[in-house]
Amino acid sequence: MSELNELVGRPWKKPPFVKRAWLRWAMVLGFVAYLIAAYLTIEVNWARVYEGLERGKQFILAFANPDFASRSGDIWDGMIESIIMTVASSVVGIVISIPIALGAARNIAPLPVYLICRSIIAVSRALQEIIVAILLVAIFGFGPLAGFLTLSFATIGFLSKLLAEDIESMDRVQAEAIKASGAKWAQWINYGVQPQVMPRLIGLSIYRLDINFRESAILGLVGAGGIGATLNTAFDRYEYDTAAAILLVIIVIVMALEYLSGIIRERVQ
Amino acid sequence: MPVRDLKGRQVWQRRTGRESLLHWVMWLIGVAVFAYCWQQISASTTWFFVWDAPRIANDIWTRATPPRWEYITQLGKPIWDTLNIATLGTILALIMAVPIAFLAARNTTPSKYVVRPIALLIIVSTRSINSLIWALLLIAIIGPGVFAGVIAIAIRSIGFCAKLLYEAIEEIDETQVEAITATGASRWQVMAYGIVPQILPAFAGIAVFRWDINIRESTVLGLVGAGGIGLQLSSSLNVLAWPQVSLILLVILAAVIISEWVSAKVRGAII
């Protein structure tokens, strides 16, 4: 009651986000100190930035007037190569990641298999695509094969992890019912587990296809095939209208993929 | 239930005849597409290099080990730059993403047919282009350096943050908003007291999550000249200094693991 009496007559104030006052102030002060330190160590050549604004304007204008025609052959070849890499690596990645996902689900796999599969996933997730691509280009030579292997490797980490989590959270009852009918291990997976995780697998696969396409656009920067090499050349030659055309094509394809994946995911779920 | 008659025995099947035919055709198309793709890849591959790959891999491995540990003294500044690119980029992105998210959410947008599509277009176009491409573009415009990296990360993150944030805004509890409105609050007061407190945890989670991703991305931005540890990586690769490359890769791996750990801890504390 005394607390209420104390509060009556005082205007209401918003409760702070962090309760302890000293912690709140320490966080604010630390943040400001970091910002100052960061600002002081970043060297910005403002004269160069100012000079660049003109080129920035040209680039934005180029978006209004993209040039699809003069390098259409290169754009077409690069795009086809990107799409081919995307499709092939998604297929291979998905096929490999399904057994790994089964192995990485604790309710299906024994402990040793679980640990091996989890460490494969951890390695694949910790290495970025572009670094893997650099190493694979050094090993396998220039061309789409390196890009294909890179994207397949990245797909394994992504898909196995999310699929394994879905398998772990599945409904045990259905799987047990199948087991009780005398099913073998393969039948148990096929009729007890697979129908439960199929919608999620399809959704994730299409999402990964989308990611793979976006990634395939940059792999060309390090020589691993795809549209990236054409894009890099266009930037180097200051052909902004061609670069704008390539970027627009990428955006349109990604939007189309996203739209398609929305429809498919709605249908399977 | 699809049942097939097999010499008087009733056999259960998973699919009816039509369904299985359809499945079969879809699989056939899928396999044909994959075979075509593989053939294209294989046609533009120099197979001699591929057969030679194990020897090359072994060669690179012997050159790269052991890492040149004393080189780490020169990596302090690049790591600090990388951290700055990720953090400042995330902050800038959040500053720009918040208004866009409010314009894109169905329940807070001022107009569904004009403003919302524009906001969604910004979200999609910034999201679909990789930060390396943004960096390439910005280097052509404002010159190489850390600043280009910060801006590239910021632009790339807008779409991601705004998308997750506007989904959070669309999922808020309307009754709280109505309660604030019923007290006679203005449009901005409703925002500040009805909507913002509900999305604040989601906002903090998104910020930390994106920061984690940005640490990963900023480690490789230097490959195109946008500052950070990637610059050292690219110059070491150019002079084939494999012991330095392996050390840099180890440092990047450590940075990625630490940032993931930090972000998981912070998100665990918030949510």
TrEMBL record, chain A:
Q: What one GO molecular function would you report for this record? A: ABC-type phosphonate transporter activity
TM ranges are 21-42, 83-103, 115-139, 241-260
Main location as per UniProt:
membrane
What name appears for this protein in its UniProt entry? Phosphonate ABC transporter, permease protein PhnE
What is stated as this protein's family in its record? Belongs to the binding-protein-dependent transport system permease family.
Lineage of the native species?
Bacteria, Pseudomonadati, Pseudomonadota, Alphaproteobacteria, Rhodobacterales
Q: Keyword Disulfide bond on this protein?
A: no
Gene that specifies this protein: phnE
Q: Which UniProt keywords apply?
A: Cell membrane, Membrane, Transmembrane, Transmembrane helix, Transport
What membrane topology does this protein have? Multi-pass membrane protein
Q: Where is the ABC transmembrane type-1 domain?
A: 79-261
> What is the protein's species of origin?
Meridianimarinicoccus aquatilis
From TrEMBL, chain B:
Q: Does the keyword Cell membrane apply?
A: yes
Q: Which GO terms describe its cellular component?
A: plasma membrane
- Give the lineage: Bacteria, Pseudomonadati, Pseudomonadota, Alphaproteobacteria, Rhodobacterales
- Native source organism of the sequence: Meridianimarinicoccus aquatilis
Query: Can you name this protein?
Result: Phosphonate ABC transporter, permease protein PhnE
Q: Which residues form a coiled coil?
A: none
Which family does the record assign?
Answer: Belongs to the binding-protein-dependent transport system permease family.
Q: How does it sit in the membrane?
A: Multi-pass membrane protein
Principal location class:
membrane
NCBIfam families per record: PhnE
Q: Which CDD domains match?
A: TM_PBP2
Query: Under the GO molecular function aspect, what terms does this record hold?
Result: ABC-type phosphonate transporter activity
Give start and end of each ABC transmembrane type-1 domain.
79-263
